[in-house]
Design goal:
Mean pLDDT: 85
Strand content: 25-35%
Strand order of the largest sheet: 1-9-6-5-2-3-4-8-7
CATH class of the largest domain: Mainly Alpha
CATH superfamily of the largest domain: Hypothetical protein af1432
Number of domains: 4
Low-confidence stretches: 146-168
Helix content: 25-40%
CATH architecture of the largest domain: Orthogonal Bundle
Shape: globular
Length: about 600
């Protein structure tokens, strides 16, 4: 019966792709080729197509004598496609390296898979960016009317006049035009038969995806672009992340296309196994080697941001969004990815701190927890640096903790955060987001315990003991906790919530100053002195023609020195005008008001 459950896999591409999944920690086992033999966990170190498989036998040295004598074994594993087992194999080489027992076997003649091969999907891990460009054609019908006189041609007619003139004899026809619509998305997984893709709901995704047959382009970091036609099979909406997840099935796949798709699947698995856990010394997949940082990949990079800093920040927002999804699925925080993106964010701040503060206003499409985390990270380390020079590792830890501190909220039901009022039980459940995140931090050994405690565990505590999760107060709270609680509160108050609109910075300052029993007065004062009464990223309205402008620079006294004019009160976009600064600001006159924002 067992034999009938498995399907043979013999092609080089499929065998390579399936073996690649077994290089991930805990994915492979070895069993001597006899019915009563026991299976032992084994580590696959390397693969060389059609040549050898390399293993680490250190943990199961007791099998080495039999394997040295040429006893056959079966390689077992589990992948997204199902249960895997190899044809009988033999070890060919043994060596000791740094106290480890390393060996090689011949390449398997084939694999057996207990599930349809078409179900095999290579899943992208955090930090792996592959873009999907979706194109669909729309037929637009326009009216084309031939007017009787040149005078009528020169002066457009109102709708009622146009109808009247038509009745009097003008010839009115409908002309069909074809318009191509384009949408960028993020590849989540890929198989030889289809793909799963995330799109921003705000990008008009539903309009494009309504076309059930579309042309896709799979865009890899190295510049490789692969076009293929696909049908939409299912759509799932995530309102919290403002994302549409769409399942596509490829149509009319040629043998050449199938071969190329299997190559992509194999390379994705190779890169995913390299990024598993704390990383690997494996050579990166060439497909994921970025050759041009300006190449648009995915729904974030494909969106037009108004500044280069905003584009860089969008990539980090994408990492946090992916990490939050992984947390929902029970995965741990990826230490290597957190370290890499903390370095990137710290570099952005050091390159242009005011540019980073303004860019926070340009990132509005992600989850509220992602945007808030970026803001707290940037403002916390910026404020901390203003008092004294800090070691790079401490700055990096503050940035990393700030980015993560609210992601645990994404692990709770969205109804808690969409509700305008909370019952006592719901409020207590909401507070569990701290513990939910801390339970997933095991792998982040490089984060200083003092920073983990001061930011992640105690950012929501208050001096009077009214905070959570422990109700600490007074001397229980160190300077780092006191600082980040002020940063966190100001940013949270300035963002819209289910029960209220976003407040102005001045309103947030007044609240904190009226509640110095909860917030440290010295840190409130330092925050105000450092970021100013009207901070970078504020939207102001001048008395002159009610002109709107974004504040993009302050002088040493924290007075406005630079603004960018805008025609609307929505998020900054690519239609922004050139900066106005210095004496040119006097033309705008006095500021009429600082506007609250709803994003």
């Amino acid at each position: 019966m067992e034999e009938e459950e498995y399907s043979p896999v013999s092609s080089k591409m499929e065998v390579s792709a399936l073996l690649e999944t077994m290089t991930q920690p805990g994915a492979a086992q070895i069993r001597l080729n006899s019915a009563e033999a026991k299976a032992f966990p084994i580590v696959l170190l390397d693969l060389e197509d059609d040549e050898y498989v390399e293993y680490d036998l250190t943990a199961i040295r007791e099998l080495a004598p039999k394997l040295r004598r040429g006893v056959e074994f079966i390689l077992l594993g589990q992948s997204h496609a199902g249960m895997i087992r190899s044809t009988p194999m033999k070890m060919t080489e043994f060596s000791e390296k740094d106290g480890r027992l390393i060996c090689k076997s011949v390449w398997p003649e084939g694999l057996d898979l207990r599930q349809r091969r078409s179900a095999f999907r290579a899943q992208l891990r955090i930090g792996m960016d592959v873009g999907i460009r979706l194109r669909a054609e729309e037929e637009v019908k326009k009216r084309d009317k031939t007017d009787k006189t040149d005078k009528q041609k020169e002066k457009p007619l109102k709708e009622d006049e146009e109808n009247k003139e038509a009745k009097e004899g003008d010839e009115v026809t409908e002309v069909a035009e074809t318009r191509t619509m384009e949408l960028m998305g993020d590849l989540k997984d890929l198989s030889a038969t289809g793909a799963l893709v995330d799109f921003f709901a705000q990008d008009g995704a539903s309009k494009v995806i309504n076309h059930m047959r579309s042309e896709l382009e799979i865009c890899f970091p190295d510049g490789t672009v692969f076009p293929i036609v696909a049908d939409v099979r299912h759509i799932k909406t995530d309102p919290d992340r403002q994302v549409l997840t769409v399942g596509f099935e490829f149509t009319n796949v040629s043998k050449a296309d199938e071969k190329q798709l299997w190559t992509f699947v194999r390379e994705i698995e190779r890169e995913a196994s390299r990024n598993a856990g704390e990383g690997s010394s494996k050579t990166p997949s060439p497909l994921f080697e970025v050759k041009d940082e300006n190449v648009a990949l995915g729904r974030r990079q494909g969106h037009k941001y108004p500044t280069p800093i905003a584009r860089r920040l969008a990539r980090i927002a994408g990492y946090l969004d992916s990490q939050m999804v992984a947390l929902r699925q029970g995965q741990k925080i990826n230490s290597g990815q957190l370290s890499a993106h903390a370095d990137k964010l710290l570099d952005i701040i050091k390159d242009d701190r005011e540019g980073a503060l303004f860019a926070l206003r340009c990132i509005h499409r992600e989850s509220a927890w992602v945007i808030h985390g970026l803001s707290v990270a940037i403002r916390s380390v910026d404020l901390a640096q203003s008092g004294a020079k800090l070691p790079r590792e401490l700055e990096k830890a503050i940035v990393a903790a700030g980015m993560l501190h609210d992601l645990g909220k994404g692990m709770l039901p969205g109804s808690l955060w969409r509700a305008s009022t909370l019952s006592r039980d719901s409020y207590l459940r909401m507070q569990s987001h701290v513990a939910l995140l801390m339970n997933q931090m095991d792998n982040c050994k490089w984060l200083a315990p003092a920073v983990v405690q001061g930011v992640l565990e105690r950012i929501n505590e208050r001096l009077d003991g009214s905070g959570y999760p422990l109700g600490l107060k007074g001397n229980d709270l160190g300077q780092l906790s006191r600082m980040v609680s002020v940063v966190d509160a100001v940013d949270a108050m300035c963002r819209p919530r289910a029960d209220r609109a976003g407040q102005t910075t001045e309103t947030a300052y007044r609240y904190l100053l009226a509640n110095t029993n909860q917030f440290d007065y010295e840190w409130i004062e330092r925050y105000i002195r450092h970021f100013g009464m009207i901070s970078v990223g504020s939207l102001v309205k001048y008395k002159l023609n009610d002109q709107l402008a974004w504040v993009t620079g302050l002088d040493e006294r924290r007075h406005i020195r630079q603004v960018i004019l805008t025609s609307h009160d929505g998020p900054p976009d690519t239609e922004l005008e050139k900066p106005i600064e210095g004496s040119a600001l006097t033309v705008l006159g006095e500021i009429k008001e600082v506007l609250e924002t709803d994003f």
